[in-house]
Amino acid sequence: MTNLRTRGEKISSPVSLRPRGFSLLEVVVTGSLLAIVAATALPLLSWIIAERRIAGHEQLAQQELANLMERLTLLPADELTPERVEKFTLSEWAQRRLPDPALEIDVAEVTAPRGKRIQAELRWRFNRSPQPRVTRLTAWVYDEGDSP
Predict the structure, then answer these.
(1) Is 146 helix (H, G, I), strand (E, B) or coil?
(2) Which of 11, 61, 63, 78 shows the greatest Cβ crowding within 10 Å of its Cβ?
(3) For 98, which DSSP code?
């Protein structure tokens, strides 16, 4: 026996007893899982953003000190005096980007071989933290003919 279908007849399928869509319990469980994931991800994302900002400030401070040190080491050793180095400042761009920047430059005599030690220190605060962030750079300038 063959079952032939004529034009326009519908083939009936067995009716599914399972309702279509999601139950309220499934929606509540999914929503609470998403809330837990969001609650753990948001603090992590804010921490990542803060760390990237700190890294950017540190890179800017290192670059600024390297540029400053290059200008200072081009001076002859006899011109490196505390009065002379007081005239060196941070660039306007660095002053705007770093929160509460403070630059200190120290020049000290070196005896053997004769010359000067230059230490530049740049401090700034991040998010009103009690401890300032510090970047230091040290270089030596020797009298002509006295280099090590």
Answers:
(1) coil
(2) 61
(3) S
Is 125 exposed, middle or buried (CB count within 10 Å of its CB: 0-12, 13-18, 19+)?
middle
Q: Could you give phi then psi for residue 5, rounded to 5 degrees?
A: -110, 135
- Residue with the two structure tokens 């053997």: 112
Distance CA 123, CA 133 (A): 6
**What is the structure's pLDDT at 147?**
58
State the pTM of this model: 0.69
What value does the mean pLDDT take over residues 41-67? 92
Residue 65 has pLDDT above 90, yes or no: yes
Q: How far apart are CA 98 and CA 146, in angstroms?
A: 38
pLDDT tens digits along 125-134: 887 778 899 9
Q: Return d(Cα 23, Cα 28) in angstroms, integer.
A: 9
The two three-digit tokens of residue 40, written as one number: 């753990």
User: What does the block give as tokens for 68?
Assistant: 């400053």
